[in-house]
Sequence to fold (327 residues):
Amino acid sequence: MQSIIVVSVCFLLGTFGAWLIIRFGKYMGVLDVPNERSSHDNVIPKGGGIGVLSAFVFCSLYLGGAKSFWISGLVLALVSFMGDRRDIRPRTRLVVQFGCGLVFLLGLMTVRHTHLVGYLLLVPLSVFIVGTANFYNFMDGINGIAGITGVVGFLLLAVYGHGAGSDSVYNVLSVAMASSCAGFLPFNIPRAKVFMGDVGSVLLGFVFACLVVLLSASFFDFICMTAFLFPFYADELTTMAIRIRDGDKLSQAHRKHVYQLLANEYGIDHWKVSLGYGVVQLVIGCVVFVIRNNDLASLLSFLAVCFFCFVLFSVGIRFKITKKGLL
Fold:
């Protein structure tokens, strides 16, 4: 009963945060003015993810989550909200993000009395956390994609964590994060009245990555749960490779992700593209559940095949658009 109440409150907080920004966003200076790289045409308030932030902090405090987790997440989200109001240099953002990631990891390792050798994981895990936070942010470019991915991804984490007998606090937190995303979605899809903003998308990526670390009892668990965000990782990594090939500056905004090409150059409705990504995410997650009792080689082989298929799809999409002179 307690969990149901917490999850319900988080849904309402996700809803209230979106409404609050719609109502007062222009007074807060959080308006998204479209430019040539935007996937929308109208001025729309951003920062609706403050409801997701509120849900995260509320749930963490109510359930007694690790202080190093919710405090680092709160700091990161507040700095990201500042970024919704005015430009913050990429270097400054990275410093804050890595700082928050290290605070979380050091707090976790201290509580778990990690052996000295375990501290060697600080660097790769920090890169994973910061990378996921930024990937989630970069992928939040059309209506519904961040919210739908959040609902599916965090629910998959909760189910996996419950099945593995992980700490119930973080299983409930996963469901609560999914619930807050669901509360936000009606204001962002099919037509956006508000955007999640960096305060929501960066936080969602950060929390997802931290929960993967918290719920993982082995490297196998880590790979399984990371796969629950597969479409985002696949799209971002392939797009980064293409941009590096083209000599683009990675910190510069663009419209070269596959989901952006589908929504903009192909003219597919945003909600259809977002839902498609969510379906792919859910299917891959379900297959991971089926094969998780096999060995690591089977899991990695499946994910490699999925990634190869996505690369082929990406190349095909880009080839057709280039041939039509649209890219």
Q: What stands out?
A: The first strand starts at residue 31 and ends at 32. The chain has a mean pLDDT of 91.
